[in-house]
Each structure stands twice: as C-alpha cells, then as structure tokens.
Design brief:
Oligomer: single chain
Distance between the termini: 16 Å
Helix content: 55-70%
Number of strands: 0
C-alpha cells in the first residue's frame, strides 16, 4: 500500500476514527495492530521477519540492561547486532557477496553458479538500523531497556515511518509512545498542521517527483542514442525526482504521525540550497546521516585522532552508506564520491579561505551563496548518475556521452521535444519546480515550513493554497499520458 494511493488515504481515515475514540490506554495496542496490518499488505510473510527483528532486539536490550559487567554488555550488544544484521545480509547482500567471491575464485577456475531469488522485504534496511540504534543506546546508558513488548514493538513497526523512515531514535519515539495516553488527541491546530504537511508531501511526490521521473526514466532508458543536452536534462530531473520523492514520503509520514500526536524527526531541510557538501549532508536524509555520525563515525574515532584518521572514517561511513542503499557497486561508487567530496572539501578549506580573503570576496552576499549552491548541486547531480544507473558500466557510458555527444542546437530547433515528451510536460514541470523552490526558499529564510507559513495567514489564503495544492495533485497527475503514481524510490532499500 503506497502512501500516494487512494487505498492509503482510505486506510488512514478508517484507522483514525477508532484511534480518536478508544480509551487512551488502548491507543498503543490499536496503533500496533494497524501497523502490523499495514505492513502485511505488502506481503504477510514480511511480518515474520519484522517479528524476528523485534524479538531479537527487544531481548538483547533486556540482557544489556540486566548486567553490570561491561564485558557482558558488549558481548550481548555484538550478538544482538549480528543476529539483527543476518536477515538484512541474507535478503539484500547474498548475491553481491557471491559475485565478489566468484571474482576471486575465477583465478583458480572455480565459481558458484547458484543465485538466491529472494524478494527484498520492504523497509528492512530502515527498521534494522533503527533497532541497532536502540541496542547501542541501551548499551551506552542513553536510555533504559524497554520493559513493555507492546511499546517496543510499536517503536519498531510504527506504520508512518516503518517502510522508509525517518530512522527514529529510541529516546525520541519510545518516550512519546509511553506518554501517548496523556496526549490531547483531538488537538485541532496540531491536526491541521499534520494535514498541511501531508498535503505538501503529496504535492512533492505526485506533482513534482512523478513528473520529473517521466523525464529521468525516458533519458536513462535511451541514453545511448541521446545527446548531452538530453542527458543533462535527465540527471537534473532525477536530482529533482529523488529529492521530491523521498522528501515527499517523509513529509507524508511526519504529517500522518503528527495527526496522531507524534513528532517524528525532520529528514530534509532544503538540501539543494547547501553551500558545501558537508552542509548538504546536514540537510539531506538527516535521520540516516546522523545515524552514521552517532553509531559509526564517532565510534571509529571521528575527527579526534588527526586528519588522516578523520578522512579514513569519512570514507568508511560514505562507502557503507552507499552499500546501505543497495547491493550494487554503483551505490558504493556513489557513496565513495561523496566521501571524496568531503575529504577534498576539508583538505582545501584553508586554501579556499585564503583565496577568498585575498580576492576580497563577500561571502555573505546572495550571488556568492547562489554560486556555492549551484556548485554543490552540480557535484551531487553528477554523483546521482551512479545512484540512478543500473550498474557502473551504464553510469560510465552515460558520463562518456555526456561529454562527447554534444547537441546544443536541439534547444533552438525544437529537437528537445522529439524524444517522446510533449512541450506541455516541460511547462508543467517548470511550474511545479518553481513552486518547490519558492517554498524551500521561504523555509530557508524564515525557518518556517509550509504548514507554519499557512497557519499564520488569513483563512481565505489558507483555503486558496489548500485548494491549489489539491487541484495540482489531481490535475497534474492526470494531465498527460504516462504520468501515474509510482512507487517511492526508497521503498527498494
């Protein structure tokens, strides 16, 4: 059941009515039941894997909290993490490992011919990391082990963020689950805020992401016969698509949770306005980037052991981040590129500061910030080629044609409209992206998201915005052949 579907809207409305009406002490149980039901719609067998993950990590948390010995705590932590990761490894990385082993065995003229045909359980990468974070938090003493299996099960399976995040921290979500009986459920301002957030998420996904996907998919399927201008359009559209696709999902999840009285962590904060790669990762997929910072980068030593170790640690977390996204080497290259960006950015920081000072450049002015944002956007867009391509070879071929198949004349002779996408679609995409940039820029300058901006306006203006967004979601999605509701990109991870 996809968030951008009529069935989800019906499901959400149906489960809200009992949630608002039941006695406070039954809210947790009801949410757990509907969360498991929601997950079972994808595949009932997935629930068994989710249950395994819940029981293993719940028990591990209790064992870690039971013993005083640091050696025993560490032993149970390692055991719990291994047992948690086994399922992820079996379902996601087994074929990648077989290929890696075969590449070594070819030197002795031997290979493993068997390949697993296992369907990747949806959301497994997200809830695996969430439960690992919980066990580490208990080990560190940041939280006490959850005694209630109901509360912990809901923490892992809470349906708005189960299949694609945000990857919640135990200290944030478990505390809210414990306190749900004391939350004023029928809080009208909060419900409005949640509805506005969900509506903006639907707009990002249905209007912007799915339309940008029409361009990106067409280009990447036909990149061997297209010129550099079309290839540039393709990767720019994918940059827009993946932001609005995942950002839209996160907004829907955050809005749905808010309606029910929960505050999930923000996952995106105008990432394409970033002035550096470091800032980009402070604004992009925040729940994952902070997870890697807290549970991998800092334990590896962070930046406490000198520059060389800092750069090693940066490369490790970005390579692992690439691997987390998918069992293809192209994802590893994507992560490695971002790691390399970060290392080069840090290595050249003092040199760049001296150049800026000598050139008497004003770094606080709009033109400089725009130039920085454009430069970062180009770097991230280039890296997205490896993320979007099916494999490294396809990505390299795409890049080769990008620099060799020059065809600037198609911008002037109408040739840009000859590869299957009508002129109307360009106009619709342009308008929707313009709306996106406006809303993001207002958030950047005011610190207020769309829901807060709307609530501060007159009623006629609020209704006008809501009606326009609703009409956009309906009309834009039906305005052209080939544009339809697509599965969220991050559901595959």
């Amino acid at each position: 059941m996809m968030f951008n579907s009529f069935s989800f809207i019906c499901f959400f409305i149906v489960i809200l009515v009992p949630y608002f009406l039941v006695k406070p002490k039954f809210r947790r149980v009801w949410l757990l039941v509907v969360s498991v039901l929601f997950y079972s719609f994808w595949n009932p067998l997935y629930v068994l894997l989710l249950l395994y993950c819940i029981l293993v990590t719940y028990g591990t948390g209790l064992l870690i909290g039971k013993f005083q010995s640091s050696a025993k705590k560490k032993l149970f932590l390692v055991l719990g993490i291994v047992l948690d990761l086994i399922v992820l490894f079996v379902f996601k990385y087994q074929n990648m490992m077989i290929e890696l082993v075969n590449s070594v065995l070819t030197h002795v003229k031997f290979s493993i011919d068997y390949r697993f045909e296992l369907m990747l359980p949806i959301g497994i990468s997200f809830y695996t990391f969430q439960t690992i974070g919980y066990m580490v938090d208990v080990y560190r003493g940041n939280i006490k082990a959850s005694k209630s299996i109901i509360e912990y099960s809901l923490f892992v399976s809470f349906f708005p963020q189960l299949v694609a995040g945000p990857i919640e921290r135990s200290g944030n979500l478990i505390g809210q689950i414990k306190n749900i009986e004391n939350v004023e459920i029928r809080n009208i301002p909060r419900i409005k805020q949640g509805l506005y957030t969900m509506l903006w998420g639907f707009f990002m996904k249905v209007v912007v992401a799915d339309r940008a996907a029409l361009f990106a998919d067409t280009v990447f399927k036909n990149y061997k016969i297209l010129g550099s201008v079309e290839l540039i359009i393709g990767i720019l559209c994918f940059s827009i698509q993946i932001y609005c696709d995942f950002g839209g999902y996160s907004a829907i999840a955050i809005g749905a949770a808010k309606i029910m009285g929960f505050n999930l962590m923000e996952n995106f904060n105008t990432p394409y306005f970033s002035g550096s790669i470091k800032e980009f990762w402070n604004r992009w997929h925040i729940s994952l980037s902070t997870w890697f910072r807290d549970y991998l980068y800092i334990p590896l030593g962070g930046n406490r052991k000198g520059k060389l170790m800092k750069y090693r640690n940066l490369m490790i977390i970005f390579l692992v981040s690439g691997l987390w996204h998918g069992a293809e080497w192209s994802f590893v290259v994507w992560g490695g590129l971002h790691g390399l960006y970060m290392v080069i950015e840090d290595m050249t920081s003092s040199i760049r500061e001296r150049i800026i000072k000598k050139a008497n450049i004003t770094t606080s002015c709009f033109s400089w910030k725009l130039l920085q944002a454009l430069f970062v956007f180009v770097l991230t867009s280039f890296a997205w080629i490896f993320f979007r391509a099916s494999n490294i070879r396809e990505a390299l071929e795409y890049i080769y044609r990008l620099f060799t198949a020059s065809d600037p004349w198609i911008l002037f002779d109408g040739g840009i409209y000859t590869f299957g996408i009508p002129a109307l679609e360009y106009s619709l995409l342009f308008v929707s992206v313009l709306v996106l940039i406006t809303v993001d820029y207002l958030y950047l300058k005011t610190g207020k998201k769309l829901d807060a901006l709307i609530q501060n306006q007159n009623m006629w203006f609020r209704w006008a915005v809501v009606i326009l967004l609703l009409c956009g979601c309906i009309f834009f999605n039906c305005s052209a052949d080939g544009v339809s509701a697509n599965q969220f990109i991050y559901f595959q991870f």
